[in-house]
């Protein structure tokens, strides 16, 4: 059974902390994505990656960075967490060039609260 | 730019009622793909269906059906004889040729509550 695994389901962090959200997929997918989900705003793309060590900004990259050192792992980094980054974070993956066929495979999400 | 509008933010129905979730999209691409995803309370979005812009045939899968109309830029989703297990947030989404089909734009979601 193919899977996208997000390391934490719930996280509580303090303002100013550096936060790492980890995502691992076991499907050998080239594409990986980070979205945040907020009520009334839907899913908004933060960053995505088409390959190892490659990254591109999405629609709301400010305050975030990413790392993809291995094909299966895509990390989202909050350099200095702020309360407005309290949200549900969703990781997704897809095969290169085949998103039109399969859509994304999503992880279960990480609900981050910054206090 | 791509845009997906789901005007219904929350819908409540009584079990066994039929319900239609609306989706209207905007794109300048002539080739694009439309999706519906379901997000149950567990949180993981589940892919339900994909439809490409050249295929306007309606599709039925069990109690689920989808109506794609390019003339009105709509891709509506109907659940027949709703069940409590259908309670979830449903997202309509779009990917187009201008983005290499790699990026998907989501609507804000429609929260469906099926009351027993």
Describe this structure in words.
The complex is a heterodimer of chains A (115) and B (116). With 115 residues, chain A is mainly beta. Chain A is 3% helix and 51% strand. In chain A, strands 2, 5, 6, 7, 10, 11 and 12 form a seven-stranded mixed sheet that branches. In chain A, a hairpin with a 6-residue loop joins strand 6 and strand 7. In chain B, strands 2, 5, 6, 10, 11 and 12 form a six-stranded mixed sheet that branches. A four-stranded antiparallel sheet of chain B has the order 3-9-8-7, with no helix packed on it. Chain B is globular, with a radius of gyration of 14 Å. Chain B is mainly beta. Chain B is built from no helices and twelve strands.
Shape of chain B: globular
- The tally of helices of chain B reads 0
Structural class of chain B: mainly beta
Uncertain segments of chain A are none
| Average pLDDT of chain B | 91
Global outline of chain A: globular
Report the total helices of chain A: 1
Helix content class of chain B: under 10%
Question: What is the strand and helix layout of this fold?
Answer:
The complex is a heterodimer of chains A (115) and B (116).
Chain A: E1 4-6, E2 10-13, E3 19-21, E4 23-25, E5 31-38, E6 42-49, E7 56-57, E8 64-70, E9 73-78, E10 87-94, H1 99-102, E11 105-106, E12 110-114
Parallel strand pairs in A: 2-12
Antiparallel strand pairs in A: 1-4, 3-9, 5-6, 5-10, 6-7, 8-9, 10-11, 10-12
Chain B: E1 3-5, E2 10-14, E3 19-21, E4 24-26, E5 32-39, E6 46-52, E7 59-61, E8 64-69, E9 74-79, E10 88-96, E11 105-106, E12 110-115
Parallel strand pairs in B: 2-12
Antiparallel strand pairs in B: 1-4, 3-9, 5-6, 5-10, 7-8, 8-9, 10-11, 10-12
